[in-house]
Structure formats: C-alpha cells, structure tokens
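Consider the tokenized backbone below.
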C-alpha cells in the first residue's frame, strides 16, 4: 500500500511516541542492551552469525563461515555437516524436552490432538522409513499439499531428515497451480489429505490433487492423510494411505548427514512474471537464522506456547510454525481453520485455552478483529500473553495501537517483523528490549545491514521514500531459484548494483526506524498472501473472451490490498455480469481460491510503454486520483 508524501510526513510526526519495554519484559529478555548489541553485531556481522551458529548442532564444523568467492551464489558454513530435522527433533531426544508438548493441534470443529517431542520423533521416523520404501532418496523432491495439520510438520521433517527436498504448495492453490509447481520441481511423490473444512465447508484436497497429478507422470505415489474422513476416489495403484504407509515401520530412522549448503526445501513464490519462482533454502544457514530470530525476537523458553497463525504453505509457516519453534524446543500451536468461527472470538478463546505466550499474526487478521469490535477480545483475559508479533504486510498505526491495547492490554510489546520468502527468516524487526513506534518495523536485526536507496543505490535522506535493500549477506538467504539461476541473479542482484533488491519501498525516520510502504508494483499482498500481477493477468487470458488484462492492487481497509482487474475483451463480445462471474471462475480455476478478485472493469485498451509493457502505475494513479507524473507517490 503506497502512502502519499503527506501521509508519510504525518506518520512521522504522529509516531514519535516511543513505547518503552516494561520491566517484566526486560527481566526475561535474552538481549537487554539493544543499542550495544546492534553496535557489536554491526562491527562484524559475519562474526555475529558465527556465534549464532553455535546454537545449532553440527556433525562437523565449518571450514569457512562465509564464502563470497562465487557471488552472488554465496555460501555459509561451507564444509560443515548438519541436518535441519536433526536440529528440530533428534537433538531433543534424551533431554527433558522429549516429554514436552511439541505440537498442539485443533481444527475448526474443535477436534484436537497433542504430540510430545518423543511422539513426533517416532512418527517422523516411521514416515522416513515409509518414504524410503517408496523409493525416496537424498535430493529427491517431495511435493506437499496439506492443510494446517501435524502431518504437515511430520512430512516436512521426514523429508529433511532423509535429505529429500520438500516443496509445499499452499492448499488454497488450484489443481493447475499445483501441477505447475510439481512439474517445475520434478517431484516424484505427493503428500496430500482427503480434505479439510473451512467455515464448515469441505475443501476437497484429494480431488484437486488428482486433477494435478493426472498430468504429472513423474509422480509415482500419492500419500493420503485421512484428515476429515470424507469419501474420496482412491487409485489403488498410485495412492497409499499415510496411516498404512507408516504402520509397522520402525520408530527409529537414520538421519542423513547433510552439507550445510545442501538444499532443504524449495518454496514457490510469486514474482514479476507469470511463472512462480522456486526459492531454495539450505540445511545450515537457514537453521541458524531461524533459531536465532525466534529466540531473540519472541524470547521463547521453557514450557512456553507459541502460536503463529500463518499457514505452513507459506514461508512464515515453514520458519515459525514448524522449524523455529521445534528447534527452540517449545510448543507450537497449529489451528486448522479460520479465526472467527463459530464466533469472532475463536482466536482469543484459543489463546486462553492453550495459554499462548506469544501470538504471531498478520495485519489483515488484526484489522478483521478490529472490525468485529473491542468487546470480543475484552471478554478474555489472555493473561498468558507476553509478546505479540505481526508479519506479511505493513501494519497501519491504528491497527497496531488496537492490537497493543485490546489484545496486549498495553503490556505486550509488538514485534513487527519484516522479511520475505527469499530471506528465509526475520530481517528488520524490533527485539523485546527495543523502544517501539506504532507502525514501524524498527531497525534491522543484529547482523543485518539494510538501507533505503534510490535507483542508483545512493542512500536517500531520512523521511524520504526509496528502495529497501540489504547491503550484506545473511545465513538464511535464498541460495538460488530452482532450475533458473539466471533469474536469481537478475531478480535480486542486478536491479541495484552490489546489494540485494527486496522489491519493497520504505523510508527511514531520523532515529533509523524503518517504515515499510509496500511492494513496487508487480507483486501484490492480498490479505497477506503474495500474488503476482502477471500471474493473475495470464489467468484472465485463459478465458476465450479475453484479449488481455492488467491487474493492480488498491488499498483495502481489511485486506491491505484488493485486486482490481482491467480487462480488454475480444471484438464483438459484450461485457455482462455473467461474463464477470465467468472470469472470476477462470481465475479461481487457474490460481485457486487464494486469488480473490475485487473489481473488474472492462476497457478498450490498456496504457502501455513504447516497448509494450503494461503501465500498471498509470492505472493505479487514475484509480487513486493521483497525478500521473508522480504515480507511485513515492519514488
Ligand atoms: C511484505 C512473508 C510490511 C513485504 C514473510 C515483503 C511486510 C513481502 C512485512 C514478502 C512487514 C512482509 N511490514 N511489509 N512486517 N512483512 N512484508 O514472501 O512487501 O510472503 O516483500 O514473506 O511481504 O512476502 P512473503
């Protein structure tokens, strides 16, 4: 969401109020001297990360902490041996953590389950053995299309443990989108479920998976988790029930010794073209930064319960529902459902029921709860809450203040964490000991060097908008784009010389606090979900009546952004309500229910550059009533 310069100035003036950390928070905080820590890390970021790396288990230590001899294909902890799943599970076995609750799970209808670390470890091992029996080997890709259930964590951990590369596809994607991702990753196994419930309605995952796999001859086996118990079509030759696969498998399994730089997973995300990018993350550096950030940003310890409300299908779920909490040895809550069913206080009831200590959520959810009114959170004491978190899109100061007052009861600091699928872990975020400003992500995490610059890479003055860039490298960074290293180089390292290009616009205030304004105009954030304009435009073009389409994001009070599409129809075709419905259907079929189209406007032609590129900025400026010359109103 772009803000105008005037709004930015207002934000700056209004937000000079600092929210200081309470004594209680400071008492337990792992980092107490904020400025001192930032200074120390700044002097030598590589040393900072080398120290952080001591928190994870290495089968063999590294030869070199950081290697930039093949830039931009950077390496961390080269020569070292480790395993991401070993760090999340195996290392806790034989310690008091083994008997702690690893996962609490509940679904919309109230069914619940609990796994201790030891139980989780045993089931992961059974699945490792089961997958091996199906022929899965080190380096193979396994696609995962599952709802937010413990088996998702188990599938990911099992893959990582045996050295296979998991590729999770969010369950809100369509058969076509799933097919495309399975094909790009050349996956040979798909793990899915019979179905799930959303607002009481059945989500028919298995039949979507069937349609996707029909065109993927490489997929030899489909493993099916019995989740909601609905009737499904079962292909005896290809499908196998998850519970039958793991039944009778030994509860111990060998852990693959992986190089720090071996890929642990690929996660597809939207970019500037219609083809999603397969972001690669590795075993070593990813583990180091995810663990260091969850420990310092959320300060979790002991028997604490952490609830990250994201979906495991996104990077937030990978890092902060599954790997982070488990590496930290605390309890993670997985909730398979929406936060306002059966009533708008479901989310607060869950916080109370599971005595959640840290709640990590998204601005879109906070704004939805705000809309329901103050009375709902006020019904609940939520005494267990200590720290709150926000991620995924800019949080406007009003939503921040509401969250702070009505959920945090003015005592829980809010960690507004900026990061991306590509960064793997949090990058710009306060720590609990830091003074906060409502609506700002604070300063870069220790060991991260960020800046706001112009097109040439020159830092812009305080209070002025520009491109958000990262000036150093960090352990959990993307290593490459699967099957497309050129795209990796071009997208992130060549837009602005010598720095990592985030694609976001931001400004810094005089205290060095960052205020993220949103994406440059090719990636959208709809209710925190990342979607590409090009990907939606090409979905429109699947309809036979469409010549071409352009898509922009418009400010939305709850979702942050909503999609508006401008569609050019073939000659002789008349716009109608029915056609609008058909177009929405086409997009849903092509991308999935995650791509909700707000408004559709029919037009004769789209504004284009001389080289034929659609000028979405012009469309957006017109919609927002901004001067065309200053279209982004920011840069
Ligand atoms: C946006 C999600 C403002 C940003 C972890 C980024 C944010 C994109 C914040 C990445 C935040 C994420 N404040 N904007 N705290 N966190 N973003 O890959 O535009 O789904 O580039 O990763 O989300 O989205 P992704």
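A designed sequence for it:
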């Amino acid at each position: 969401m772009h803000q105008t310069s005037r709004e930015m100035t207002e934000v700056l003036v209004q937000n000079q109020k600092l929210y200081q950390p309470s004594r209680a928070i400071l008492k337990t905080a792992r980092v107490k001297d904020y400025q001192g820590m930032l200074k120390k890390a700044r002097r030598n970021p590589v040393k900072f990360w080398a120290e952080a790396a001591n928190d994870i288990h290495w089968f063999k230590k590294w030869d070199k902490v950081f290697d930039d001899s093949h830039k931009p294909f950077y390496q961390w902890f080269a020569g070292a041996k480790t395993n991401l799943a070993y760090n999340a599970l195996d290392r806790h076995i034989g310690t008091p953590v083994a008997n702690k609750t690893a996962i609490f799970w509940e679904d919309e209808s109230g069914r619940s389950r609990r796994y201790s670390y030891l139980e989780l470890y045993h089931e992961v091992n059974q699945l490792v053995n089961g997958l091996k029996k199906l022929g899965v080997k080190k380096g193979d890709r396994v696609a995962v299309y599952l709802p937010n259930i413990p088996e998702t964590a188990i599938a990911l951990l099992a893959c990582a443990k045996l050295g296979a590369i998991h590729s999770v596809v969010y369950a809100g994607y369509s058969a076509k989108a799933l097919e495309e991702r399975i094909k790009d990753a050349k996956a040979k196994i798909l793990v899915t479920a019979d179905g799930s419930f959303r607002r009481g309605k059945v989500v028919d995952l298995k039949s979507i998976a069937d349609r996707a796999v029909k065109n993927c001859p490489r997929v030899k086996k489909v493993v099916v988790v019995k989740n909601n118990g609905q009737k499904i079509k079962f292909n005896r030759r290809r499908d196998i029930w998850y519970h039958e696969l793991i039944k009778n498998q030994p509860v111990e399994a060998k852990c693959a010794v992986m190089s720090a730089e071996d890929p642990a997973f690929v996660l597809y995300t939207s970019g500037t073209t219609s083809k999603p990018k397969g972001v690669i993350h590795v075993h070593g550096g990813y583990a180091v930064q995810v663990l260091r950030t969850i420990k310092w940003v959320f300060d979790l310890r002991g028997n604490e319960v952490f609830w990250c409300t994201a979906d495991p299908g996104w990077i937030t779920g990978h890092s902060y529902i599954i790997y982070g909490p488990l590496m930290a040895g605390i309890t993670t809550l997985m909730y398979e459902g929406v936060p306002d069913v059966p009533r708008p206080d479901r989310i607060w009831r869950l916080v109370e029921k599971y005595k959640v200590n840290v709640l990590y959520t998204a601005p879109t959810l906070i704004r939805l709860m705000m809309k329901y009114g103050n009375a709902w959170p006020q019904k609940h004491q939520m005494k267990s809450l200590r720290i709150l978190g926000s991620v995924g899109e800019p949080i406007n100061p009003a939503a921040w203040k509401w969250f702070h007052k009505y959920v945090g009861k003015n005592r829980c600091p809010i960690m507004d964490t900026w990061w991306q699928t590509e960064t793997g872990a949090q990058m710009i975020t306060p720590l609990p000991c830091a003074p906060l400003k409502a609506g700002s992500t604070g300063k870069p995490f220790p060991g991260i060097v960020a800046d706001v610059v112009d097109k040439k890479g020159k830092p812009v003055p305080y209070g002025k908008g520009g491109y958000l860039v990262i000036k150093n490298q960090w352990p959990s960074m993307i290593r490459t784009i699967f099957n497309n290293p050129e795209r990796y180089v071009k997208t992130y390292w060549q837009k602005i010389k010598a720095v990592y290009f985030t694609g976001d616009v931001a400004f810094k205030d005089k205290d060095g606090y960052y205020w993220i304004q949103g994406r440059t105009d090719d990636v959208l954030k709809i209710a925190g979900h990342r979607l590409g304009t090009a990907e939606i435009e090409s979905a429109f073009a699947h309809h036979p009546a469409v010549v071409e389409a352009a898509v922009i994001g418009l400010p939305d009070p709850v979702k942050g952004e909503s999609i508006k599409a401008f569609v050019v129809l073939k000659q002789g075709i008349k716009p109608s309500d029915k056609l609008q419905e058909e177009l929405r259907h086409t997009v849903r079929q092509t991308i999935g229910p995650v791509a909700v189209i707000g408004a559709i406007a029919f037009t004769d032609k789209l504004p284009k550059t001389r080289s034929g590129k659609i000028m979405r900025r012009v469309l957006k400026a017109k919609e927002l009533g901004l001067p065309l010359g200053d279209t982004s109103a920011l840069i």
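The chain has a mean pLDDT of 95.
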